[in-house]
Amino acid sequence: MNDLKPHPDIIETPLEDELVLLDPKTQQMYSLNATGMLIWETLKSGQYATVAEKLSDAFEVEPTQAQHDADSLIADLERSGLLVRA
Hints:
Blueprint: E1 4-6, E2 11-15, E3 18-23, E4 28-32, H1 34-44, H2 51-59, H3 63-79, E5 83-85
Antiparallel strand pairs: 1-5, 2-3, 3-4
Helix pairs in contact: 1-2, 2-3
């Protein structure tokens, strides 16, 4: 999973406390909350290994819960075609 990155064609639009993603191929829009935004930005910077640590620090959750949450969202983003293998 650590070779995942945002699909290069995805259009991002920040809106206050969320990030809206548009897949131009499917015309589907997705909204990420603060947790999702942190995960997305971390993956964009190629730092998959630090996702859970950043979530744990930013939202004061246990590292195992942060890893579970990150893995769950990352799997959803990959299934939706928003993340691709590098």
